[in-house]
What we know:
By secondary structure, the chain is an all-alpha fold. It contains 13 helices and 2 strands, in the order H-H-H-H-E-E-H-H-H-H-H-H-H-H-H. It starts with 7 loop residues before the first helix and ends in a 9-residue tail after the last helix.
Amino acid sequence: MVQPVKTKKDSKKKLGKVDFALFFIIMLLVSFGVIMVYSASSYSAFFSANYNYDSYFFLKKQGMWAILGTAGMIFSMQIDYHKYKKHIPWVLVVIFTMLGAVFAFPEINGAHRWIGFGGASIQPSEIAKYAIVVFIAIAIDKKGDGIKKFSTGILPILLVVALFAGIILIEPNMSIACVICFVTMIMLFVGGIPLKYFGALGATGVVAIVAGILLEPFRVKRLFNFVNPWADASGVGYQLVQSLIALGSGGIFGVGLGQSRQKCFYIPEAHNDFIFAIIGEELGLIGCAAVIILYVLFIIRGIRVAVRAKDTYGSLLAIGITSVVAVQAIINIAVVSGSMPVTGVPLPFISYGGSALVFNMFAMGILLNISRNTEKKSML
């Protein structure tokens, strides 16, 4: 693991320019997301009393969250990412308390994931995944070569991650719990843990995922249905079947923006986790490829920021933040295309969701701040 040395002289240097390419990619994804949320939701909102028969209902809300998220990103972009170090202990305590508080609120779709206040709600797990990233980056940076020791280096980190992933799993929200675990593995690998421990943790993770599936009957049904969703096309396989129909109907060029038929009450809440299917139907293979390319470019720029960071903490933080978006995008696209069992992971920056969008963009501000504190000379 490369550990750049940061001196006091370096910390006093004037901040460099923001990675404009990364900023542009983020804003392009967010803007495209607002457009697609409107396209995917306008029909169901117009014909539903729940949304006051207003086709612009979700557009107005997502637009508002996008503006708030952009403001949050610009704000966090100005804050030196080193300042989060002294605040992370109490932040973790507050977030863990919030994760416990969700059980005091009514279930939504069979899960306790939100804290409601007034007409809005917040999903603490969306904050937790980034707080864990900051914690791991700080821990690995502080331990240095000590991270290679299991009992004093790796184990303490795993215990904290398990605590947060565990309570999120109980909500239940296995998808976000898995995202946190995947990102933890990536950060530990980049942080320099021995391969023997990495392999053991990977095997343990697979066993844990299998156990998590087997302990819940509905997850078992999803797993078996994934092999042949058409066997129960009107039951457990309904959502995936409708998604595949949408993607197939789009062909190469799509049926046209706003012309989706699957959003007309075929795909449930098409503006959420399965919005990529609507993108495929309306914009075709070309539209899907364009979205995937944007995520690939985001990952490349995120890695570039990590490689050029002036200290180990900045490198790990950039890797962690980039990994959260990358893992969620890969899982979402894999689920929608039938490449893995159905699970509820939103498509970053594009799926409808206020708290997810705001916290994602705040985290992007941190990533952009790291890009302002990078070495000018780099191979990337």
